[in-house]
Amino acid sequence: EVQLVESGGDLVQSGGSLRLSCAASGYTYSYYCMGWFRQAPGKEREGVARIHTSGSTSYADPVKGRFTISQDNAKTTVYLQMNSLRPEDSAVYYCARGQALTSDWCHGGGPERFGTWGRGTQVTVSS
Asked: Cα–Cα distance between 6 and 15 in angstroms, integer?
């Protein structure tokens, strides 16, 4: 099973930027999907962004144009660059990983398709 460790969460003022990282280890598949999710107090967990091994990406509407998901050349770490942060972006951010032979599986499925989850990193955006 893959292990995921998030980092980079912090307190930032509205309009600021943060870069989250998710280090992955214990690869078992050649093709996979990495996703970022977030959950605010009293709210349900929601998807933020996803990236497939092929490099294809997808984003939830609230973060389009502001967040960018990427991976390093070795594909051992995924990043979430967050710009123009808003108070409503405040949440615990989780990275997740699942097998995905195709990009359609990666971008079209729900969180139940991700079998491994990190412990989360707190992002707080002040007004």
From this structure: 22
**DSSP annotation of 112:** G
CA–CA distance, 94 with 2 (Å, rounded to integer) = 14
Predicted confidence at residue 74, as pLDDT, reads 80
Residue type at position 17: S
Are 57 and 69 contacting, i.e. CB atoms less than 8 angstroms apart? yes
Strands 116-117 and 32-39: unpaired
Helices (H), 1-127: 103-108
pLDDT less than 70: residues of the chain: 1, 27-29
Phi, psi of 103 (to 5 degrees): -70, -30
